[in-house]
Amino acid sequence: MHRFTSFALVLAFVCAPLAAHSQAPRILVFSKTAGFRHSSIGVGLAAIRKLGEENGFTVDATEDASAFTSKNLARYRAVVWLNTTGDVLDAAQQDDFERYIQAGGGYVGVHAATDTEYDWPWYGRLAGAWFNGHPGNPNVRKATYRVLDKNHPSTAGFPDTLVREDEFYNFKSIDPTIHTLIEIDEKSYEGGTNGAHHPMSWYHDFDGGRAWYTNMGHTEATYSEPLFLRHLLGGLKYAMGNGPVDFARARPEENRFTRIVLAEKLDEPIELAVLPGDRVLFIERHGYVNLYSPATGRTKRIATIPVSTKYADSSQAEDGLLGLAADPKFATNGWVYMYYSPAGPESKNVLARFHMVRDSLDLSSKKVLLEVGTQRLQCCHTGGSIAFDAKGNLYFSSGDNSNPFATGYAPIDERAGRMPWDAQKSSANTNDLRGKIIRIHPEPDGTYTIPQGNLFPPGTPKTRPEIYTMGHRNPYRISIDSHTGFLYWGDVGPDANVDSVGRGPRGYDEINQARSAGNYGWPYFVGNNQAYYRTTFIDSVTETSGAQFDPAHPVNTSPNNTGLNDLPPARGAFIWYPYAASPEFPIVGDGGRAAAAGPVFHRDDFRNAARPFPQYYDGKLFIYEFMRHWIMAVTMNPNGDLVSIERFMPSGKCAAPIEM
């Protein structure tokens, strides 16, 4: 874990949303280029103006990116990206255009619009794909198109096939949600790389708006072709839709939020709990318990808990004061729960309850509910986050307590004396509480009971009934959806940079969702159930590889395993990403990894809030990244399935977020 020197809460303020002006349909044609400039831009703009004159809509045109403000974009039913190239918008302009689409605006991309904004993942999804080269010598060729859908206004009445001359793009990162209208027959020309179904024109509803794209439009002659003009007009009509743009539907503007710093110069702050009266209780890993009071605007240290922060070789540990939560009935009972590594010779972590009296923590009131045996011989992975569900059940996370440095892949070293390097002793052990998320129900006398629905019913041999989910590496932050009861967590993954035959996949961090008890696979699987190979370690540099593990039937035969051999089937991650750019989730970027998840925001939980969070975020899961410094809002459908991911306050900087 890393030092974190500032700590903040973000509060929400609500402003009146921008409203679209009441006017006749109007579109904006944008043709800024930061790369190759097509000579056809001028004739293309003239053709679109003529279509507007003949069909009752007004056409404005610009190459000035400063036109991309919410106020100005609200005037337009659609924006045409006419042969744009390269990086043409700055971050604030990108944010306003995203909000415009969310407000119900339309997008029309013509030809080189897919050769634009490669570092803006949202745009790539909106456009539907990115340019990936074209034939050369010559670049303009003749080929056969196949019309796949004649029910769209842009292809109604088209022939089944047509032959035309243009510059034919190959594409990469093709979005799976596009609906292809026209594809090109790669057998009719040389240089195609997208195979039997090579899309050339498509549309899709995206992020609240409508997007239509055609690869046609490189040549000046294109804009005098009657069939192309019919095609383009139909795409414009689709993108314009039937109603005005309404920014009340869009992501709130960032100026609605104010950052308030509660405390600075802290020593690794870890987890917080908001108490009645908006007091904020938070902990630092070295054992410090702090309380912020809005009445005074100050933070004071109210207790220090003696904790272990070193391993047996005196190296710095990840242990310490790790987790904090207030009891759901704190207003009447004053109880707070902490998960920590007690100072002393015994290798263990404990979950304990303490009593708060006004602004003081009574350390003598400590009641230990549960102990987790650990090893303090070697680094790493502690977990430690605590959360309550709506039924008063307490969840806390624990890491695999395994050394990851001998291999960037699965730590499954079964040699004698190598127990700290074997996560099969913990994460894959049904009789061990490490590498798990535990679910118990605290009782008033300081004991606990087992809720129904945990992974192993009480009395099952070689299991612990406290286990709710297993197969975790370092589930560092957890959260419970107050309405659905779904559990969310970020799992910090292994370090391998590349896939390796005989070892397994590269490392991934995970955002996970559990709708019920289950096994999430570590150390046999990572990401979307990508399997490692059974490995026999011979010495520090030599090993032999066996078969890949089977996610449907994972088996733990390690001599360090005290639990069942046959494990529950492994579940894949909800969201997963490597150090490199993620092909599945490009918006998360690349770089260091330290994933965290939760909460899911429900506006109904804050009905009396003086400054309520915007309705736009209702039902969205917030995820955040300590190393990449972002916060994302994840939209899900009513079943909890992933719909989309977007940046929260994309132009704002959030230094190493570690708790929300």
What is the class of the largest domain in the CATH system? Mainly Beta
Tally of separate domains: 2
Within CATH, the superfamily of the largest domain carries the name: TolB, C-terminal domain
Major sheet: arrangement of strands: 3-2-4-5-12-11-10-7-8
Tally the helices.
Answer: 6
How many β-strand stretches? 39
Shape: globular
- Radius of gyration (Å): 28 Å
Chain-averaged pLDDT: 94
Strand portion = 25-35%
CATH-defined topology of the largest domain: Neuraminidase
CATH architecture of the largest domain: 6 Propeller
Share of residues in helices: under 10%
**Which structural class is indicated by helix and strand composition?**
mainly beta
Report on the architecture of this protein.
It is a single chain. The protein is mainly beta and 660 residues long. The chain folds into 2 domains: 26-249, Rossmann fold, CATH 3.40.50.880; 255-647, Neuraminidase, CATH 2.120.10. The chain is built from 6 helices and 39 strands. The strands form 10 sheets. Strands 3-2-4-5-12-11-10-7-8 form a 9-stranded mixed sheet, with helices on both faces. Strands 22, 23, 24, 25, 26 and 30 form a 6-stranded mixed sheet that branches. Strands 14-15-16-17 form a 4-stranded antiparallel sheet, with no helix packed on it. The two termini are 17 Å apart. 46% of the residues are buried. Mean pLDDT is 94; it is low at 1-22.
